[in-house]
Amino acid sequence: MKKIFVWAVILAAFLVACSGNGEVADVADEVMNFAEVIEVPEVDAVSNIELQTAANVGTAYLFGEIHGNELYLNVQLSLWRDFYNEGMRHMFVELPFFGAEWLNLWMQADDDDILDNFFASFRGTALDNPYSRNFLLAIKEEFPETIFHGTDIGHGYSTLGVAFLEYLRENGLAGSEQYELTLENIEQGRKFYGELNMSHEFRVESMLQNFIRAFEELGESIMSGFYGGAHVMFGYYHPNWGGGPTLATRLREIYGDNIVAVLINDILEGIIEFPTKIMTINGREYVATFLGSSDMRSFSTVFVYRQFWRIEGAYEDFAENPLNGNVLPFDNFPVPVEVGQVFAILYTRVDGTTEWHHMRSSGRIWQGRPITEQFLIE
């Protein structure tokens, strides 16, 4: 066994910020706070993580992911397989309460009509991708006793939320706890997308209260949860997201060591061998390491997909290549980015054509975020 040290990296101590004229500034410092140590197997990437629970208190194992990323979803499935085999049944997800309740109904259904309606309601979002659907199908087939718990605000309140209220009424459950929680979740969504103008602070506060309620209802049960990495890292959100303590940080303040938070990035970087190939750039061969891929349809009308490759040992060769002005922040990458690295990203357009973008990480900041910059190949 070897230990993975899971760190919350807070890029908040920049001595030089982005100037008013939009110029890019240098990264002066970064603060890294120790968060958690877990033991993982030396060979098997994601199996046999030991479950540990304090007396009379449940433990929450939270994993930070990238929405809709095939590699990350495969890791999540492997993690859940191990937990499920250990007897765990409760999975917390970054979905509204009523969204998870629809999934629980679908788990008992003989067809996938409910799942079809579920994804139709989230069309155009980060959830709208084939990998997320395949993940859920695998959960139903392999782990049929899984129980979903949604702790996010009421995304899709006017579709899935209203439909679930109607389902409860038709089945004589008006006034039940499910009904009241659905009403509350719908109101959270209505406020968030309405008068609160998508306030991140309101969303996090609501997620916290929703989590506390669902978590404490489980008593001594152990559970795991899958959330976007920004919510699971210990520390603070980016200033663009309000800058307050993250969800995991606030939960740790309440429950102490019974909150275990792990970024899937760290699992991947620590114990999974990424595939490599030889890539030729400007007539020279480099070892290229495949880092993962992401679906872009939820935020781009031009591209549908992109693959990330790190070009090993290439920085000095391309450090002086001219830039074209395009930037890509670190948080768009499926793994942590370090200064002095070069990347090749293959973008697939809506029409099926592809193009390569070559990026280098020189320690620059754009709008308060560490970035890579696209350079030209001569």
Specify the helix fraction band. 25-40%
N→C terminal distance: 46 Å
- How many extended strands? 15
Low-confidence stretches: 1-55
Q: What's the overall average pLDDT, rounded?
A: 81
Task: Specify the biggest β-sheet.
Answer: 8 strands, antiparallel
Structural features, described:
Helix content is 33%, strand content 30%. With 378 residues, the chain is an alpha/beta fold. Strands 2, 9, 10, 11, 12, 13, 14 and 15 form an eight-stranded antiparallel beta sheet that branches. A five-stranded parallel beta sheet has the order 6-5-7-4-8, sandwiched between helices. Helix 2 (97-108) packs antiparallel against helix 3, helix 2 packs across helix 5 and helix 5 (157-170) packs antiparallel against helix 6 (177-193).
Task: Give me the secondary-structure topology.
Elements: E1 2-10, E2 25-26, E3 31-40, E4 60-65, H1 70-85, E5 90-96, H2 97-108, H3 113-121, H4 130-142, E6 147-152, H5 157-170, H6 177-193, H7 200-217, E7 223-228, H8 229-232, H9 247-255, E8 259-263, H10 264-271, E9 276-281, E10 284-295, E11 303-311, H11 315-318, E12 323-329, E13 341-349, E14 354-366, E15 369-375
Parallel strand pairs: 4-7, 4-8, 5-6, 5-7
Antiparallel strand pairs: 1-3, 2-14, 9-10, 10-11, 11-13, 12-15, 13-14, 14-15
